[in-house]
Design goal:
The chain is an all-alpha fold. Helices cover about 85% and strands about 0% of the residues.
Length: about 500
């Protein structure tokens, strides 16, 4: 009875903690390049340098994330091994994110500042992200309970991300921007979110009780991390599959989607907010009902159904872009297509989350050690690496299609308005003139990237999952039973 009562409490407190974290995550990872594009006048060399910084920072995470996971495994405090890093990580991340969006630097000075900030974010966010998701295996080893914790935490993460994706564009771009300019608006929003994030994480820090079963963790070493990862063939496969899927999953919302909406339908943050909220609304169904669905439909069969839905969405987006003029009819067709594709992609994401976590028991089965924090560190690392590759692909697309020549003009008008050199009405009028001068072929090229690249990557991940991931429901149950039998004999 006490375990059931504790589980119910944890099912409330644990997921609540991530709402603010994911608002902060969305602000930095999905909005930072939009902030740069529309508030900074950068040469091609400076823009290329920023792109290189992002990629380099994520390569740095290849070492940072697993090392952090190993450090957590060796942490011994009266508050457990996870919670101290939740506190340190969320506070330091909030400081870094606030500074990122509250600077007046331009040119190469901004590029250097951006480099320091991005690397600091990679370090600080890792501290609490690995700690947070690393707690899931310590909350329960029951498969159904683990599905509940993962799905509910993902639901509240989605709530945080969706709130941010709806409100931030609406309040930063166009005539509803806070303070009348994108520059001012991002600074204010960063302050608010960086206060909210630590407050929400208090639910997890003070309200969750995890199992504190310490094992003898080896010293922090690349050899240990490498051995854990490479010694687990299922972890290797699901890491590759997850990376491929995540690039496609985050491609539209990672920057290219907002730029396309602004270029094709007007410089109005409300339109992108509408695009985001409708497109993401259907994922709430999966967030809520995934545990029930997973009990009725096995993962590989479910992925096949989700793939069909997603492909249908991408086809609708393509047809709309090819045959319809830039009217609200086309806008809604693109939105519906994104909604269907996002439903399929998000379902894939939930399956991947469970699949990564389940390799903890497989690791214990083959090596005798759980190494849950090291394994959990792979998910945030892969998510960050995918976001870096998304930015790389997106920024290359911007350079190829000449996007920066237009965004530089827009950023000039935004900064002039922020300094009161021109009125807000003049700013909107001048930016409308820039948008009207964009060639139709450039917006179409952005839409083609939005539809084709994610679709191909999603289907690739599906084929690899079906062929190489062996820890289906039956095999996972067998492994857990074998582990219990071993413990009974010990």
């Amino acid at each position: 009875m006490e375990d059931l009562k504790l589980r119910k409490k944890n099912l409330i407190m644990f997921p609540l903690g991530t709402v603010g974290r994911d608002m902060e995550y969305y602000l930095f990872t999905s909005c930072i390049m939009t902030f740069v594009l529309f508030t900074r006048n950068l040469t091609s060399a400076q823009f290329a340098a920023i792109t290189a910084i992002v990629v380099a920072a994520r390569i740095f995470d290849a070492l940072n994330d697993p090392i952090m996971g190993n450090i957590i495994e060796r942490t011994r405090t009266r508050w457990g091994k996870f919670k101290p890093w939740l506190v340190i990580g969320i506070l330091s991340t909030s400081v870094v994110v606030y500074l990122a969006f509250n600077t007046s630097l331009q040119g190469w000075s901004f590029v250097w500042f951006f480099g320091v900030i991005y690397f600091m974010y990679s370090i600080t966010y890792t501290m609490h992200d690995i700690s947070y998701w690393g707690m899931v295996p310590a909350l329960s080893s029951d498969a159904n309970a683990r599905n509940q914790f993962t799905a509910r935490a993902t639901l509240f993460a989605g709530i945080g991300g969706t709130l941010a994706s709806v409100l931030i564009p609406m309040l930063t771009v166009g005539d509803k921007a806070i303070g009348g300019s994108t520059t001012t608006a991002y600074g204010v929003i960063a302050l608010v979110i960086c206060i909210i994030a630590p407050l929400f994480l208090c639910f997890t820090i003070f309200g969750v009780r995890e199992k504190r079963e310490y094992t003898d963790a080896p010293p922090v070493s690349l050899k240990k991390i490498w051995k854990t990862i490479t010694g687990n063939d299922q972890l290797l496969w699901i890491s590759l599959i997850f990376l491929i899927q995540q690039i496609g999953n985050g491609f539209i919302i990672g920057g290219i989607g907002s730029t396309y909406i602004y270029f094709d339908f007007g410089y109005n943050g409300g339109l992108f907010s509408l695009f985001s909220i409708v497109g993401m609304s259907v994922t709430a169904f999966l967030m809520i009902f995934y545990p029930a669905i997973s009990r009725k439909i096995k993962r590989k069969k479910l992925m096949g159904i989700l793939a069909v839905i997603a492909v249908a969405g991408y086809v609708i987006m393509l047809i709309a872009g090819l045959v319809l003029p830039s009217t609200m009819l086309k806008f809604w067709a693109v939105v519906i297509g994104y909604m269907l594709s996002n439903f399929g992609q998000y379902g894939f994401y939930l399956v991947m989350m469970i699949s990564i976590i389940n390799t903890v028991e497989y690791n214990e089965y083959v090596s005798g050690q759980r190494d849950e924090a090291i394994i959990a560190s792979l998910r945030p690392f892969l998510t960050k690496l995918s976001s870096a590759l998304i930015i790389l692909i997106t920024n290359l697309s911007y350079i190829i299609f000449g996007v920066t020549s237009y965004t530089n003009q827009i950023s000039d008008f935004e900064n002039q308005c922020a300094r009161n050199f021109i009125t807000e009405a003049d700013k909107i009028s001048l930016i409308d003139g820039v948008i009207n001068g964009i060639a139709p072929g450039q917006t179409l090229a952005l839409l083609l990237c939005m539809a084709i690249i994610p679709c191909v990557l999603m289907l690739t991940s599906y084929v690899l999952y079906k062929k190489h991931y062996k820890l289906d429901e039956d095999e996972y149950t067998r492994i857990c039973a074998e582990l219990e039998a071993r413990k009974a004999k010990a």
